[in-house]
Specification:
The protein has 303 residues and is of the alpha/beta class. The chain has three domains: 8-87, Winged helix-like DNA-binding domain superfamily/Winged helix DNA-binding domain (Arc Repressor Mutant, subunit A, Orthogonal Bundle); 89-161 and 265-302, 3-Layer(aba) Sandwich (D-Maltodextrin-Binding Protein, domain 2); 163-254, D-Maltodextrin-Binding Protein, domain 2 (3-Layer(aba) Sandwich), CATH 3.40.190.10. The chain is built from ten helices and twelve strands. It has helices at 8-20, 23-30, 34-48, 64-88, 102-119, 178-188, 198-206, 223-231, 241-250, 280-302; strands at residues 53-55, 60-62, 94-100, 123-129, 141-146, 153-159, 163-168, 190-193, 216-220, 237-240, 253-254, 266-272. The strands form four sheets. Strands 4-3-5-12-6 form a five-stranded mixed β-sheet. A three-stranded antiparallel β-sheet has the order 10-7-11, covered by helices on one side. Helix 2 packs across helix 3 and helix 4 packs across helix 10. The radius of gyration is 25 Å and the shape is elongated. The mean pLDDT is 86.
Amino acid sequence: MMRSLLPLQWLRAYETAARHRNFSAAATELGLTPAAVSHQIRSLEGELGFKLFERLARRVELTEIGHAYLPSVSKALDDLLVSTVGLFGAEHEAQITVRAPVTLTGSWLAPRLGRFYAEYPGIRVRILAGSWTGPGESTEVDIQFGNGNWPGFESTLLLKAPSVVVARRDAVARFADDKACVAALVRNGVVHIMGCENRWINLARKYGLPEADIRVNVTTDNSVSAIELTRSGFGPCLVQNYYAQPALESGELVTPLHEGLEIEEAQYVLTPRSGQRKNPAAMLFRKWLLDEARADSALARSA
């Protein structure tokens, strides 16, 4: 009968070999011989009563049950590593590289980063702007905006929010309803964000207005610039609500509609599907990011 707790070294050998799809590469990472890795995995298979790997001529492949078992083992090992580093600290000061859209960095990440530094003073963060760059394995924490599907990467939802119309107070008159307001705004001219032009089209369709009525005053490539252009009198912009919050809370800008526009895209944290060894400090930062997003979501639901 299987013991209640499996030896940790067996599980590490299995998880590492599964990432590399190679016993020799796993042995190099773990500081063992390939024979030792193979022996530990056979011991695990014997204890479980199931075959986890198919041994082929020059490689190994996970069996169906080997695939099914991997996510829970990886998460358990990751959680143990994150907890250990979080409670007891890393051996040395660490620096991690984070790539995030400049808009997300300025409006959401920057105001919260001080809390991370206060909690983990031994970890320093280097942030790269990534407005239009795709994900890359060289970045330890990668935040991307999109539909959640990036080949070669696991994606975890970070932030999803509706888009809201943001306008100057002096540009918004009293209208009978939201349809009349949208009709006036698009006729007077709006700020477009590259890659998100369909948002104004979808908003017009929502209220039964023709696309041809949309007049574009200026186009930019990010939400921060769009908000600044709106401040400067170039017309309303349509941005996710967490980008707009600082300007709305200060009273500089207003959202004239009663409801926002739901969009499919969201912010995701990406993890490469590769044999790359995970950086404990980066894993800790990733967990902190997700905890911050969950706290924001809980606060919004209670408001």
